């Protein structure tokens, strides 16, 4: 089985996700959230959400390569770029954004890195796609789409322009 979410599908999902995020921020009275995308796909989704929400503050970017729990087994990814965060995340409301949440291990690594920068007031997890093969008890607060994959199926995000997802 092969499935592709076209540019239109991904953009539509981002718009819906942005609307859900705006509602969440309003309900929880969060005025000045810091959006942080996990490289690479999470940054692409975060850029769209940041634009949709009209947030002027620079976007934070996390490269979790050194925080992965499989680092010693698989080595360093050849495209490590380093993280870019503001001077302090202390007491900030963080919106952590990734393209796909699966096992929860990437999110755990991202939170470990965030806490090395300070203690945020809160962290909300937003993802474009949830494929739900959890190995850790981590769930997104907001998710664009949920999808169940067969064994052996993988998700590939292409972007940033156009942003598309394909399953193979």
Mind explaining what this structure looks like?
The protein contains four helices and eight strands; from the N terminus they run βαβαβαβαββββ. With 168 residues, it is an alpha/beta fold. The protein has a single domain, classed as Rossmann fold (3-Layer(aba) Sandwich), CATH 3.40.50. Helix 1 packs across helix 2. The radius of gyration is 15 Å and the shape is globular. The model has no long low-confidence stretch (mean pLDDT 86).
Helical residues, percent: 25-40%
CATH topology category name: Rossmann fold
Instruction: Write the H/E string, N to C.
Output: EHEHEHEHEEEE
Number of strands: 8
Question: Biggest β-sheet, characterized?
Answer: 5 strands, parallel
Oligomer: single chain
Number of domains: 1
Rg over C-alpha atoms, rounded to the nearest angstrom: 15 Å
Figure out the total of helices.
Answer: 4
Basic shape: globular
Mean pLDDT: 86
Q: Give the class from helix and strand content and strand pairing.
A: alpha/beta
Termini separation comes to 7 Å
Which residues form runs of ≥5 with pLDDT under 50? none
Portion in strands: 25-35%
CATH architecture: 3-Layer(aba) Sandwich
What's the CATH class label? Alpha Beta
Spatially, the strands of the biggest sheet line up as: 3-2-4-5-6
